[in-house]
Every structure is written in C-alpha cells, then in structure tokens.
Amino acid sequence: MNPMDPASFNHRTERLSTGRTYHFVDQRPVTYPDHKKPAAAARTILCVHGFPDIWYGWRYQIGPWVRAGYRVVVPDMLGYGGTDKPLAVEEYSTKKLCADLAALLDIIGVSRAIVIGHDWGSYIAGRFALWHPDRLLALALFSAPFTPPTKRYNSLEDIVKKVPNYAYQLYFARSESTKEIEANLERFLRLTYALEVPQINPMLDGNMRQVIVNPGVTRPSTSKRPLTNDELQYVASQLRNMNGPLSYYRTTKIRFEEEQAAKLPSHLPAGLPVLHIWGGKDLSATPGVVSRMREMIAGYEEIELPYKGHWIMAEAKEEVTGAVLRWLSKWEVKPVKVKSML
C-alpha cells in the first residue's frame, strides 16, 4: 500500500444488488477473519470521498488504518472513476447513493461499518446514518458538517443567500458547467486542489466560471500542496467524464422530496459516536453550521486543525489518521441497535 502507487492497493469491481457496478479498494489486515467467521466480529471502515475526488483521496489513511487492524473499503462513488456513470440526474439522489453503500456492505459481508466521509462524502455519510442507521458503528465527518433534513424546501439559490461562500455551487448545478470543466479539467483540478491560486474569489457568484475558463486570473501556489503533479494526473485520468460528479449539485429538490416522502428523521441515531474534523481555513466548514452541529448531536466530538484547508487527509495526514484511531479506541465502537428506514 504505497500512497504514491495506486496499483499497490487491492482493487475490486462488483455489481451490486441495486444494479450498479462499483469499483472500490478493499484492503484487509492480516488478522481479518475469513468468510467462515461472522463479519460482525471484525471492524470495517467505509470511506466516502467528495467532489471532485476518487478513492485515491484516502491514500494516506488506508495503510495506517489497516495496520491498526481495520478492514478499509473505499469506493469510487457513483459517476466517478471505475464506477458506473448514469446520465440521469435522479440517479444521484442521496437515497440511491445510500442504497448503493448498503448494497456494497452486503456484497463484502459486513453488517455494520465505521463510516467516514469527506466533503460531499460527509453529506452522504450523514444521510446514510439516517437512511440506514442499523448499518453504522460510528460516523466521522471531515470538512463538511452534518446538516439535518429540513421541513421546508430550500432551493440552491436560497441556500446561497444564507451562505454566500456556496455560490460556486450555482455554476456546478448548471448544465453548461459539465462541458466547460471537461474542456479545462486540469486547470479546474489545479484550482480545486490549491495548486493554483485565483486572483478573484471563486466561491462567489459568477467567479467560478471565470477562473475555470480564463487562465489569466490564476497564478501558481507557493504554499504546501495537497498532491503532487503525478497524483494530479492520476486523479484527472479518472475524472474525464464530469456529468456524474456535477449531478450531485443538481439533486437539491429530488433529495428534499425523497426525504419528505420517507419522513426521514432530523437527528442522528441516539448513541451513535460522531466525530467532526475540519481545517481552520476551510470555507466549507462555516462557523454557524459547525455551531449548530455541536448543539444538536449527542456524543459529538470535534477537532479543528488550525491553518489547514479543505484537503485535510493530505494536508494533515498524520493528525487526521491518528485522531480517528484514538477516537475509535475511546468509544470501542459499540453497535447501535436501531432499524433501517428501508
């Protein structure tokens, strides 16, 4: 398991009961029980990446967690890498994505897992705890905090009015962003991973498109980079089709309607250990949202990493990896006895 060599990890591709085919890394410790023993006797960490990432975003955590005795399973999420890439936006609803994760646990013989998400993966991991609460041992969210379902529909435009730093999502939600980002993919990734610095704030309305299509408004970054040029090229090779990744931003109303129809609970399961880790310079972890999360979740723990940005799995790999192991050891990861919503 060499973080610099994607081929050194154990790759699998399986067709799930949901009908979708997923690519994932499945790394087992030497001491992991064989298939003749109960899967619940072992502990599995399921990692859910965000946008625009792939399984490789967890490259620095997989090895240490496996060496600590955990099985680590890291899929390319729907639309990414070697996983299916349906065209229809409705296929990317959180309900369906969570059904895929449950089916993935089924196919690897795991009843409950420690679920850890980053960015969009945090949102999906949080929703997985609501749609399938009986499948979690513990929940860790990196960067993006937990946001509960709402009783009133808030369009993406409504959300941006409350949180102006989310205005870039308006561009991602527009259909034209797909081809524009595909045509400028390497520049987009260099901006996203802070290898280049824009001279205007890309988070604000209208600016994201400018920095993607106009190379004259960026300059190389002089700060420590979260990935090398070789790593960037590997990620780019897995993201040639951007329709799927961008479709996540186009499901706001679909997600709301599904959650309303299912009467999805607004609180995480009682007794579920929850950890939130974020970088102090990460604009996606707004203080107001973090504060609400702190107030509404029992058993909640938080770790702020000062001077770190969005890509904490690389920027603060030792701190993040060790913090999760200490947190799991403290809680002993006891199963939560609740029924699934589905």
UniProtKB/TrEMBL annotation:
Residues 44-315 form the AB hydrolase-1 domain. GO terms for molecular function: hydrolase activity. Keywords: Hydrolase. SUPFAM superfamilies: alpha/beta-Hydrolases. Belongs to the AB hydrolase superfamily. Epoxide hydrolase family. PANTHER family: EPOXIDE HYDROLASE. This is Alpha/beta-hydrolase. It comes from Russula ochroleuca.
